[in-house]
């Protein structure tokens, strides 16, 4: 071959190689029986969860999102496993020092992801252009070769009480169907079915912008063709939501509705 022909041949090989990798990753996600649940934020020994929290105790309980999910993630996992899927729960940082939360972490089989400084920005091993606090959770999730990744959070809009009804599942572009299916599940059994939301349905927000609020976790999953969602559907600063979630039976219903949404997505993937 002459020089230009060599060059064209080399370019074709690169293009075909990239296409093959894409197709392999897409097929891997589509056929994977694994769901990864990441408990958001981390637990500081002796201090408690370091996520969003209710402004005060006036609505019946003081809730913090990392502790909330240490307490209730096992219900999401149970729903996913009962449908026949494999479910992994993880969190960056150490096991909670609170004995009850530590017991629940064992019950959920939480994998503690080694993160030397939980507040530091790390670079993704899967997609080195992606850097963020908490990216090691996204990396661990991708190590599991999953069909779906769900980052378990609760939102907060204010340091004081404020009725807000803009709850949504934030998703990556390949996760729109996952987020929509999960939003439908929320609308069927939680939003204005126990948890007042003033007639506003659960939203779906596609995030392609790297650095805003967990965007890089979604992007790194997107670059591996893995549907991923951050659950930002309830506001701890909304007294209506906080009163609902403060009741353990309601919190269980909320967690199970998230699990049901995930299962419906997993079941519909090939249809
Ligand atoms: Zn959060």
Instruction: Identify the bound ligands.
Output: zinc ion
Shape: globular
Strand content: 15-25%
Strand order of the largest sheet: 5-4-1-8-11-9-10
Count the DSSP helices: 8
Distance between the termini: 46 Å
Structural class: alpha/beta
Query: What is the fold named in CATH at topology level of the largest domain?
Result: Aminopeptidase
Detail the poorly predicted runs: none
Helix share, percent: 40-55%
Main sheet: strands, sense, barrel: 7 strands, mixed
What would you give as the CATH superfamily of the largest domain? Answer: Zn-dependent exopeptidases
Mean pLDDT: 93
Provide key terms for this protein.
about 270 residues; alpha/beta; Aminopeptidase; two-stranded antiparallel sheet; 11 strands; about 45% helix; globular; binds zinc ion
Report on the structure:
The chain has helices at 3-31, 65-82, 99-108, 135-143, 176-189, 215-222, 239-245, 248-268; strands at 34-39, 43-44, 48-49, 86-92, 111-113, 121-123, 131-133, 148-152, 168-171, 203-206, 228-232. Helix 2 packs across helix 8 (248-268) and helix 4 (135-143) runs parallel beside helix 6. The mean pLDDT is 93. It contains eight helices and eleven strands. The protein has two domains: 1-31; 34-268, 3-Layer(aba) Sandwich (Aminopeptidase), CATH 3.40.630. 43% of the residues lie in helices and 16% in strands. It has a seven-stranded mixed beta sheet with strand order 5-4-1-8-11-9-10, with helices on both faces. It is α/β, with parallel strands linked by helices and 271 residues long. The structure holds zinc ion. Residues 40-41, 51-52, 65, 153 line the site of zinc ion. The site of zinc ion (ZN) has 6 residues, from loops.
């Amino acid at each position: 071959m002459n020089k230009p022909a060599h060059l064209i041949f080399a370019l074709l090989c690169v293009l075909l190689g990239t296409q093959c990798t894409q197709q392999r990753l897409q097929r891997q996600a589509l056929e994977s029986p694994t769901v990864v649940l990441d408990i958001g934020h981390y637990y500081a020994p002796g201090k408690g969860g370091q996520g969003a929290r209710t402004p005060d105790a006036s609505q019946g309980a003081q809730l913090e999102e990392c502790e909330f999910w240490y307490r209730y993630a096992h219900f999401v996992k149970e729903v996913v496993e009962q449908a026949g899927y494999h479910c992994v729960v993880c969190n960056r940082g150490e096991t909670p020092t609170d004995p009850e939360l530590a017991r629940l972490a064992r019950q959920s089989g939480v994998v503690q992801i080694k993160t030397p400084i939980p507040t530091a920005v790390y670079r993704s091993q899967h997609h080195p252009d992606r850097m963020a606090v908490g990216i090691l959770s996204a990396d661990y999730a991708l190590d599991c070769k999953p069909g779906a990744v769900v980052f378990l959070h609760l939102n907060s809009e204010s340091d004081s009480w404020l009725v807000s009804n803009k709850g949504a599942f934030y998703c990556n572009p390949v996760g729109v169907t996952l987020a929509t299916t999960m939003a439908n599940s929320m609308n069927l059994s939680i939003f204005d079915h126990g948890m007042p939301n003033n007639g506003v349905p659960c939203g779906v927000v596609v995030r392609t912008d790297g650095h805003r609020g967990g965007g890089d976790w979604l992007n790194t999953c997107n670059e591996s063709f893995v549907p991923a969602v951050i659950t930002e559907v309830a506001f701890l600063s909304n007294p209506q939501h906080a009163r609902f979630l403060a009741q353990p039976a309601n919190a269980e219903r909320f967690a199970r509705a998230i699990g049901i949404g995930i299962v419906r997505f997993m079941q519909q993937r090939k249809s």
